[in-house]
Design a protein that fits this description.
alpha+beta, Nuclear Transport Factor 2, Chain: A, 6-stranded antiparallel sheet, 6 helices
Length: 188
C-alpha cells in the first residue's frame, strides 16, 4: 500500500521527488511476502485435512476390529506408550466389559468436528479427536470418546482414550491432547 502511495506522490511531484524503483521494489516484496504467507497457509490447510482423514480412518479401523472382537489387532493400532500402560489382557478385559454392560460395538467413527493438532518441543505431532461409539443394540446415548493420537514414523497411532481407559486419565489428563510430561506444545 505504501509503495502505491509513493508512486502516486512521485508521479504528482513534477520531477521533484524520486525513488520510483525503490517504490516498485517495495510493492514486489510485499506481494511476494503476502503470497508466501498465503501459500504457507494453503499448504498447512492441506496437511491438516490429510491428517484429519488419516486419523478418521484410524478410528474407523479401530471400530471395525473391535466390532469383530479382534482385540489383538485393535491393540496394535495404539502407541508403544499406550501398550506399556495397558496390556493386551487389560485392553481385552475393558472391551469385554463394554460389550457386556453396553452391548457389542458396531462401529467407531470420528464425529466430523475439526481435530486439534499440536507439536511438542521435539517436533512430534499430536492430535485430539472426538469419536462416537455406535453399538449393535439400541442404546440411549452412543458413547462419545476423546482420542489422543500421535504421528510416528509408522503413521498415526492412538495414544490414549482417557474416558474409557482410566489409566490414561491419570497419565494424560482427560482433556489433554498432549500427554503429561511432554514439553510445552506449539501450535502447528
Amino acid at each position: 500500500m505504501f509503495g502505491l502511495v509513493a508512486l502516486r506522490q512521485i508521479r504528482d511531484s513534477n520531477g521533484t521527488q524520486w525513488g520510483r524503483p525503490l517504490a516498485w521494489a517495495g510493492i514486489v516484496l510485499a506481494v511476494l511476502l503476502g503470497g508466501g504467507d498465503r501459500a504457507r497457509a494453503f499448504v498447512q490447510g492441506r496437511a491438516q485435512m490429510s491428517d484429519q482423514q488419516q486419523v478418521a480412518q484410524l478410528i474407523a479401523k479401530l471400530g471395525e476390529l473391535i466390532a469383530r472382537n479382534d482385540d489383538a489387532a485393535a491393540h496394535a493400532l495404539f502407541t508403544d506408550r499406550f501398550r506399556a500402560r495397558t496390556t493386551l489382557e487389560a485392553f481385552t478385559a475393558k472391551w469385554a466389559m463394554v460389550r457386556k454392560n453396553v452391548g457389542p460395538v458396531k462401529a467407531i467413527k470420528w464425529n466430523g468436528v475439526s481435530m486439534q493438532f499440536e507439536r511438542d518441543g521435539s517436533g512430534t505431532l499430536y492430535g485430539l479427536a472426538v469419536a462416537k461409539l455406535e453399538f449393535a443394540t439400541a442404546v440411549a446415548n452412543d458413547g462419545r470418546q476423546q482420542f489422543n493420537v500421535r504421528k510416528s514414523a509408522q503413521g498415526w497411532q492412538i495414544d490414549a482414550i482417557p474416558l474409557l481407559f482410566t489409566e490414561d486419565r491419570k497419565k494424560t489428563g482427560a482433556g489433554s491432547a498432549i500427554p503429561a510430561g511432554s514439553p510445552n506444545p506449539t501450535v502447528r
